[in-house]
Amino acid sequence: MYRFLFYVIGLLILSFGVVLTIKADLGAGAWDALNVGLAKTVGFTVGTWVMIVGIVLIILNAVLLKKFPEIFALLTIVLIGTFVDFWLELVFKHWAPSGLFFRFGILIFGLIVISIGVALYLQTQFPLNPIDQFMMVLHQKLNVSIQAAKTLAELLALILAFFFNGPIGIGTVIITFLIGPLIQFFYPKCQTIFRRLQYR
Question: Of 50, 113, 116, 126, which residue is most buried, by most CB within 10 angstroms?
Answer without folding.
Answer: 50
